[in-house]
Structure prediction request, 326 residues.
Amino acid sequence: MAQDWLSECPNQKDSRCETLTIIRVLFGSFSFVLSLFMIFVIWLFKKYMFFSQRLILYLSIAALCDSVPYMMGSIENSYGCKFQGFMMTYFDWTCVGWVSVISLNMYRLVKEEISYESSESLFHLACWFLPGIIAGVPFIWDAYGHSGPWCWIKGDNKLQQTLRFLVWYGPVLVIVILLTCLMIYLRVHTKRQNRSYAGYNPEEESAKSRKWREVRILFMYPIVFIAISVFPLITRIQMALNEQSSFPLVLMTSITAPLLGAVNTLLYSCSADMRQQMRPSFIWEELKHRKRQTLAETYNFAEENSAAESYLIAREEEGPELEDDS
Prediction:
């Protein structure tokens, strides 16, 4: 049986392996920068005041962290390699978690016209804690190590190959199918509801408009995740059915896998108001406004402290006189 060229990447200087490493570092860095910019914009314009925007913020933070192991490139050190593999699994699952939460919130908005804002703390527990348990499973069998030109769950034996499917590919395939069915259902359901609203009064029309606007904001994020997951899943199926990995498929996987944060940022900037707010001049004016606001708050706080100190000093000076009078 011929050795797969991908599995030999850590031990040989193959131009394909070097190309894959460079591609992952470049696209991981691109995603990191754009995710950081998106988090900055949400903070600057206080979009986090709204629950749907906070969900996008949490997904952006997860995508930002998820781009870090891609930026690390190929690691020779054994412990560093295991750490990279753990990070990749953990933050991939945090992204899956927040995409799933966004999808569930959309479903409830469409069906019951209320959000899951009251369950926000529970979502944090699920999306940040559970991935740690899942990512920790391969440590039981010391399965993290070199997996081609990067580090993840090794594929040297049947157990490690099974772990790949149990820890990542199997559940993600199920989630992608479920999300696809959910997106189709929501699309059909919203179209039917839009037709059924005909003839309602202006207040109901306004409420309907606000709800669909929030749903539209969230709708594309699960679709982006589904699209980005296609090539990794196809590549894994091809590798399971053939002895030799397909370089074009692995290349497309290396391009798309780190791109969740970058595509989310580009998607976020699609609306007209966000395009205006993301202009450098608009951002600069908002930064100056925030600075003036901070200075004013600091000045008011200092004045209050100064007044309190003056009062305490006056009380201390009056203290002996009060004692003498008594």
